Give the backbone structure.
Amino acid sequence: THWRHLVPVLIHRLARHSGRTRQLSAASCCVVASPPFGSIAAGRDCNRADWERLCPGKPIVAMDGPDADGKRDSLCAPLWRRCRENGPRDAIVRVSGSPPGLVDIDGTRSLCRRLDVPYLGHARLPLAAARPAERTTRIAYAGAVWGHLDSEAMGFNAWRRAIRDECRRQHDKDSNSCKWSWVSMRGSGAPAALTLYAASTFCLQPPGDTISRSGIVDAVTLGCIPVFFHPQQRELWTDHWRAAEASVLFDWTPAAWAEGAPQPLVKDPAVYAARAAAMMAELIAMPAERVAALREAVARAAPALVYAASEGGGQAGGTRGASADAVDHLVARMRALRLEPSTEEQARYEQQLARRAADRVAHKARRAEHSAWLATRNDTLGKRGKERSPKAKRLERRPKG
């Protein structure tokens, strides 16, 4: 499942949803789609003025790119501007699969009025999460440790390499303790990863180019307990599930950041080796009662993270009804939208303002610390460079010509 397919899935499901009306007077909001990624219109104004003219006096829900937190995000950029000026009273409400906050530290996307929805996973039914299947593998990690350019730049590939290396060490001691499966950003290797998830108790979900991963949805819908490494991962899709009840968190963000560092300070996998070993030891030793409680919470959460093939396809267990899936949850939130923000929306906006200010201060501190480290490192390398190696001395003594 390619991650950019989220918007077409949403549009087609909403077009057939029983909550749709063709009467503007009866509607709580209007739904529009941004231009497709890569199209000629993608860099234009997204027809915002036309949208407001066609839907006067009502919120306009814009289905945009699946990722509001990446550098290659497929977003219609003009929709995500002037968010601080408009605030929660913006007529445009953006729908995206990944909340801003990791990459966009110096920007204002996090202040945009928006609704977050789960990434698009592979399952169309949450049945596997509820089945009491035998789990022959304790820990699974499916992911790549290279090829994710943003992940490499931000330092998360160091986490991934440390996790992969420790998984291999555990596998050498006991083949059922941990298994690793390679899977690319575009889905290569996904069938093997899904098979592994369905047979595993815990599924490791380190951040990549963003803190969101479709693997989180895949794990939950297959009944595997997701294991997070960044505190912001538990804040994903809060209108769809209670992640704190259905996941395990090992916070690997630097302690120097009071709110949890958006990005690692150190990009050396060896630095995280001890953490990876301790993490796996804790998961392997976790009591059966705790595991059972987590699996029950995962089964309850699964329906609301699934994009079913048709309305009501979430099956039993959805918190908004016996068959509520991800789209049904989105529709429920859309029905509650008004031009004037609710108390909850206003409070969320003010919280984002405060967090953004704190993150920017911490980000500057991180840059200063990193610059000091680079200066020390370069000075050390410079001193080493002045010392000629034995090989260099031999070459100097070799007759010329």
In short: Confidence is low (pLDDT under 50) at residues 256-261, 316-322. Strands lie at 30-33, 60-63, 92-96, 114-116, 137-142, 178-181, 200-204, 225-228, 248-249. The first strand starts at residue 30 and ends at 33.
